[in-house]
Amino acid sequence: MNTFLETLKGLLDTAGVLTGKDTAAYCLDQRRRYQGSALAVARPRSTAEVAAVIELCALHGIAIVPQGGNTSLCGGATPDASGTALVLSLERMNHILEVDPENNTMIVEAGAILADVQAAARAANRLFPAEWAASGSCRIGGALATNAGGVNVLRYGNMRELTLGLEVVLPSGEVWNGLRGLRKDNTGYDLKQLFVGSEGTLGVITRAVLRLYPLPTAHATALVAVSDPAAAVELLRGVQAAVGDRVTSFELISKPCFELLAKQCPALPHPFSPLPEWAVLVELSDGGDSHALTDQLAEVLHALACDNALLAQNSRQARDFWQLREHIPEAQRREGVSIKHDISVPVGNIPAFLNECGQQLALAFSDASIIAFGHLGDGNLHYNVFRTDKTAALYANEPAVNDIVYSCVAFHNGSISAEHGIGQLKRYHLAQYRNPLELTIMQQIKRVFDPKQIMNPGKVLID
């Protein structure tokens, strides 16, 4: 092992290898559920250095845990407790390499922070539409590795849809250069799709060609009270029928979310009194003038008989509305431990899912309270369960709660992971809810790319 570490240090600069106590921040996941230990942390500055590190690991049989911003919500970037794995951090490969406004593309390194990518696109009068709460800390490689989503998926799609090409270092140390900025390329298998969503189990993404869009000049935002989720789905269809794909975001927020925000984030504006049972946050975007688009949204909501709708009259009010939505995870963190679920079901099935799952949880756990919110427009809900005990001891109930939630998800033809990945948290559930043939194919793909089984062991698939 000393030979490996000495050789590793020779491949990178003096800041490129961390050992001992300096590795601690890289071994604890964001939710503080998984505490691991690392042989070392490698921090390369280029694709060539990544390739050299991986080739060395393959030679010595050292497991590799790729890591971006360490914002995984499923333990997907945390090493195990053995202390034998190398954490491969892409944090220093954080450059915006090229912005091509004519082709509506940009090339970035995998360690680039999402907010910096968005800013570089805006500077060229373009939009990179991926958006979620961790945009100031998450990195593009991790977003690609989990096929991250966010609030704009309804209009623009997940990271898979926002990516045209990749560069990937394979577990052998070979570099596959698929950095093609083409929207039409039918020359064989689309290899990049294997790596998007693979959570670092097949290789390490080092660079990406991302898809850009014209920068919208008009925005309209409204917070609309609705009676129930069925009314929210009906409202979504009505707004889409009236304005088409200008519906950029359509977020569902339950009354318990507003109550939790008032308790834990009292400095935020709280526009409803009394609180509605449910509300949706609607945002439209387009070219042209924001006032005209806001007037159009007002007309649409009036035509759809939305009696309790608050329209943002300026960008500040719009930000206030979005602050409520974006602070729900923080309010939950302050409240204490909850059992979290990132699930999706067909949009039309959301009302039935919420009703049936809520009833089953109430029967099994009389003290259960549910914080339900999320991206109703694309069928993705964050469905989180609190109980009286809000400490880590609550996790003892997690298997029973998960059985109820995931059984309801499966009944409604949904997915147990919509945008956060599988990681360590859900790999046994993946084996339960994907059919045997699918799992066999996944294992076969893993063996082809990673025959030595060194890439992010203990994640996604059961060994």
TrEMBL record:
Which cofactors does this gene product need? FAD
What keywords are annotated for this sequence in UniProt?
FAD, Flavoprotein, Oxidoreductase
Q: Which GO terms of type biological process are on file?
A: respiratory electron transport chain
For this UniProt entry, which segments traverse the membrane?
none
Check the record and name the PROSITE patterns matching this protein: FAD_PCMH (PS51387)
Gene Ontology molecular functions: FAD binding; oxidoreductase activity
Pfam families found in the cross-reference section: FAD-oxidase_C (PF02913), FAD_binding_4 (PF01565)
Top EC class of this enzyme: oxidoreductase
Q: What is its EC number?
A: 1.-.-.-
The FAD-binding PCMH-type domain is annotated at 34-215
> What protein family does this chain belong to?
Belongs to the FAD-binding oxidoreductase/transferase type 4 family.
**Under which name does UniProt file this protein?**
FAD/FMN-containing dehydrogenase
